[in-house]
Specification:
Blueprint lengths: L1 E7 L3 H16 L3 E8 L6 H7 L3 E3 L4 H7 L4 E5 L4 E2 L3 H11 L4 E5 L5 H6 L8 E4 H7 L6 H5 L5 E8 L1 H9 L1
Parallel strand pairs: 1-2, 1-4, 2-3, 6-8
Antiparallel strand pairs: 4-7, 5-8
Length: 171
C-alpha cells in the first residue's frame, strides 16, 4: 500500500530514528517498502538502511525510483522525522477516503521568522499517490521538489520534524 522514500547524506543516526518508528507501519501491513536515496554518504547510512531492509540507492533517477516503488501511495520524509502516535491509522483512513496529497501536522513549529526565511517542503512529510508523483516529476528533481507548493489535506496525526530531532541531539 505505502512506499516510504527519503533522501540522505551522512544521516546515519537520523535514518535509524525514522526507521525505528516505521516498524509499526510494516507490522500493520501499511508499509510495503522503504527506499533511501543517497547523496554521497560517507557514514553508516547504507549499513543502517540495509539492516532495516531498505533499498539504498547511491545512483538514482527519481522517475525510475517512483516507477519501482511497490506501494500505490508514497510517503516522503526527511531522515530524522518521526511520525507520532496514530500515524498508521491516519494514513490508512486518508488513502481509503481521499485521492489527494496530505501532510502531517507538525508537533513543533519553527519560529515564525525562520519559517519565512527557509521553506522546508518535507518538514511535515508528504503523502501522495505514486501516479500523482510520477506526473509531477521533472529531470533533476528531488523529493522536496515534488512536495513544494502542493495543496494538501492535513492528517489527524502529528510528526516530530527532522529539525527538532537535530536540535534535541545538539542541545
Amino acid at each position: 500500500m505505502l512506499t516510504i522514500i527519503m533522501e540522505c547524506r551522512d544521516n546515519e543516526a537520523e535514518l535509524a530514528q525514522t526507521l525505528s518508528v516505521l516498524v509499526a507501519g510494516a507490522v500493520e501491513g501499511l508499509v510495503r517498502d522503504v527506499i533511501v536515496l543517497d547523496h554521497g554518504s560517507r557514514d553508516g547510512s547504507a549499513t543502517v538502511a540495509d539492516a532495516a531492509g531498505c533499498r539504498f540507492l547511491d545512483t538514482w533517477d527519481l522517475a525510475d525510483v517512483l516507477g519501482s516503488a511497490r506501494g500505490d501511495w508514497l510517503l516522503l520524509l526527511e531522515p530524522g522525522a518521526r511520525p507520532l502516535s496514530g500515524w498508521v491509522e491516519a494514513i490508512a483512513d486518508h488513502v481509503a477516503a481521499h485521492p489527494g496529497p496530505a501532510r502531517f501536522r507538525g508537533a513543533r513549529k519553527r519560529p515564525f521568522l525562520q519559517r519565512l526565511r527557509q521553506r522546508l517542503p518535507l518538514e511535515e512529510g508528504y503523502l501522495v499517490t505514486k501516479r500523482q508523483a510520477a506526473d509531477s516529476v521533472r529531470p533533476g528533481m528531488g523529493l522536496a521538489g515534488l512536495a513544494a507548493g502542493a495543496k494538501v489535506r492535513m492528517l489527524p496525526a502529528e510528526i516530530a520534524p527532522a529539525w527538532a530531532t537535530r536540535a534535541l541531539r545538539a542541545g
